[in-house]
């Protein structure tokens, strides 16, 4: 009578409870039995002796909106056991699109060759995703930056009353189309042009439909504490649960400050504001070398930038501003330095994996001049990672009970149109790195607690009440993995590496990863919030 039975596994049920031995029986897309099923048979039987069996992992922070339209298989995520992607994060969803934003939205899609912009509403975008098919479940957020751009373009000013009304209406329409909440990314234009009042107004609309407010806060280095406080205040005013994304303290001068930022979270919770966070388990962020430079260098595009970089006077000015900062601009170099800035992708492959300082030494040149020369030589396209997050902060944040796992990555693949450049290894490694490096090797948290942070906790946060636990009646998103060998293999210079130790993954009861290989199954559900 069962379509699937997984026998003899150590069940880690997602609730944080110690593992227990049980068979799990599935009928169709739903778990029907947990217990002793020795005399029962099924269409598919898996012997999970010696293995862990947990709910599928839920990635609360992804940017898979575009990638899943290109390749619905979601290889880099599903092969880690991630069965659900929350999309539309950091203020940037691919819908809605209005007459005002269509050109810009089409431009953004340009990096995804062959994906034609044929939708306007979030509902239409979700329909398209559903028609194409996906291997992971999808949970949409609507982005505040997208909404603002759709109404005000790139205008750096407060909205007129009529514009605010229009934005409210767009949020309401997206919530009716199935958005689970509002995201914002308050360091990215045009969303960053919004003040706290405007964001709180829009979050209140999402909250009126039972939605959450998911925030990439207004700063993660010098302005960290103010930015955390702002996100919490928006949630308090809006009456929305708050999810703070990729929680960290950036820059060496900020190391240790997670004590204070986590205290803000605790105090807010004690005061009745429902705030939780997510985290990726890496000590580096990814960007381009251009992000180290003040805005004036970029005016007019790459060619203009290259010309300026030839001028010694401009270099002197840059050097000073990079060291001292500018009013309203925190220099990325601060607390990072050239010896912690590593080139990941370069037409000259010999430079890959070297820091700017190492390249300077090779060339017998000064660090700053080397950075300027690299930008000049490669016309501003110099992808780097920068080691900016302290290991103690990573572990302190990970141990906090209100912090879950989220990758801040896209579901991509090691081959095909999405295998480009050197993406941050978190795309291929976040969840398995927590299970391997932090649980097994460093013993930062227990296996059961790690699984809770990947399953029932994000499920509860996004109100996915039929996922994230192994219980009869829950959707059959399941992972069979080996706790002794599970590990990440993706690195900063070699990021397109699938993990070890993930044996089987089922999405809505359908076998998707079998013996670590993707079967091509597209059983993911495009989920729509219903208030
Ligand atoms: Zn973000």
Summarize the structure in short:
The protein has 531 residues and is of the alpha/beta class.
Layout of strands and helices, then pairs:
Elements: E1 2-11, E2 20-27, E3 30-35, E4 42-47, E5 52-55, E6 57-59, H1 67-70, H2 75-78, E7 82-87, H3 102-109, H4 122-132, E8 137-140, E9 142-143, H5 144-152, H6 161-177, E10 181-185, H7 196-208, E11 212-216, H8 224-238, E12 242-244, H9 258-270, E13 275-279, E14 284-288, H10 295-298, H11 302-309, H12 312-324, E15 341-343, H13 356-363, H14 367-377, E16 383-387, H15 391-399, E17 403-405, H16 426-441, H17 447-454, H18 456-461, E18 478-481, E19 502-507, E20 510-514, E21 517-518
Parallel strand pairs: 1-4, 1-5, 6-7, 7-8, 9-10, 10-11, 11-12, 12-13, 13-17
Antiparallel strand pairs: 1-2, 2-3, 5-18, 14-16, 15-16, 18-19, 19-20, 20-21
The structure holds zinc ion (ZN).
Zinc ion (ZN) binds at residues 90, 185, 216, 245-246, 408.
Describe it.
The protein is an alpha/beta fold. It has a domain at 286-387. The chain is built from 18 helices and 21 strands. The chain has helices spanning 67-70, 75-78, 102-109, 122-132, 144-152, 161-177, 196-208, 224-238, 258-270, 295-298, 302-309, 312-324, 356-363, 367-377, 391-399, 426-441, 447-454, 456-461, and strands at 2-11, 20-27, 30-35, 42-47, 52-55, 57-59, 82-87, 137-140, 142-143, 181-185, 212-216, 242-244, 275-279, 284-288, 341-343, 383-387, 403-405, 478-481, 502-507, 510-514, 517-518. Strands 1, 2, 3, 4, 5, 18, 19, 20 and 21 form a nine-stranded mixed beta sheet that branches. α6 (161-177) packs parallel to α7 and α11 (302-309) packs antiparallel against α14. The radius of gyration is 23 Å and the shape is globular. It binds zinc ion (ZN). Zinc ion binds next to loops.
């Amino acid at each position: 009578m069962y379509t699937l039975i997984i026998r003899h596994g150590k069940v880690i049920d997602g609730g944080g409870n110690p593992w227990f031995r049980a068979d799990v029986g599935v009928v169709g897309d739903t778990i029907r039995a947990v217990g002793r099923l020795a005399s029962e048979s099924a269409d598919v039987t898996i012997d999970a002796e010696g293995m862990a069996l947990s709910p599928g992992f839920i990635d609360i922070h992804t940017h898979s909106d575009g990638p899943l339209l290109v390749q619905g298989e979601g290889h880099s995520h599903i092969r880690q056991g991630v069965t659900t992607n929350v999309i539309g994060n950091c203020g940037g969803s691919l819908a809605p699109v209005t007459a005002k934003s269509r050109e810009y939205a089409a431009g953004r899609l340009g990096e995804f060759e062959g994906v034609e912009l044929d939708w306007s509403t979030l509902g239409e975008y979700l329909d398209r995703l559903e028609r194409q098919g996906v291997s992971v479940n999808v949970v949409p957020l609507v982005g505040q930056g997208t909404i603002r751009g759709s109404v005000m373009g790139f205008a750096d000013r407060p909205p007129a009353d009529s514009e605010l009304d229009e934005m409210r209406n767009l949020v309401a329409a997206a919530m009716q189309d199935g958005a689970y909440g509002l995201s914002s990314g308050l360091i990215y234009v045009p969303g960053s042009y919004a003040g706290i009042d405007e964001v709180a107004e829009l979050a209140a609309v999402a909250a009126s439909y039972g939605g959450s407010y998911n925030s990439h806060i207004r700063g993660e280095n010098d302005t960290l504490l103010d930015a955390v406080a702002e996100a919490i205040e928006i949630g308090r005013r809006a009456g929305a649960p708050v999810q703070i994304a990729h929680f960290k303290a950036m820059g060496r001068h900020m190391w240790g400050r997670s004590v204070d930022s986590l205290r803000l979270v605790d105090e807010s919770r004690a005061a009745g504001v429902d705030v939780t966070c997510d985290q990726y388990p890496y000590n580096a962020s990814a960007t381009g070398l251009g992000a180290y430079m003040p805005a004036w260098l970029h005016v007019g595009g790459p060619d203009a930038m290259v010309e300026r970089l030839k001028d010694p006077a401009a270099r002197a000015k840059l050097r000073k501003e990079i060291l001292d900062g500018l009013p309203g601009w925190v220099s990325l170099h601060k607390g990072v330095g050239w010896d912690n800035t590593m080139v990941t992708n370069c037409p000259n492959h010999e430079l890959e994996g070297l820091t700017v300082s190492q390249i300077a030494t090779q060339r017998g040149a000064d660090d700053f001049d080397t950075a300027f020369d690299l930008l000049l030589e490669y016309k501003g396209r110099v992808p780097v990672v920068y080691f900016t997050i302290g290991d103690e902060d990573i572990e302190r944040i990970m141990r906090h009970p209100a912090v879950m796992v989220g990758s801040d990555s896209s579901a991509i693949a090691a081959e095909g149109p999405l295998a480009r450049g050197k993406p941050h290894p978190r795309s291929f490694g976040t969840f398995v790195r927590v299970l391997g490096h932090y649980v097994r090797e460093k013993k930062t948290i227990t296996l059961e607690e790690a699984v809770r942070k990947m399953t029932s906790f994000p499920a509860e946060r996004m109100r996915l009440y039929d996922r994230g636990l192994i219980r009869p009646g829950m959707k059959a998103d399941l992972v069979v993995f080996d706790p002794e060998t599970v590990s990440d293999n993706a690195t900063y210079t070699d990021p397109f590496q699938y993990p070890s130790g993930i044996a089987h993954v089922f999405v809505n009861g359908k076998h998707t990863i079998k013996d670590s290989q993707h079967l091509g199954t597209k059983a993911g559900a495009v989920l729509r919030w219903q208030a």
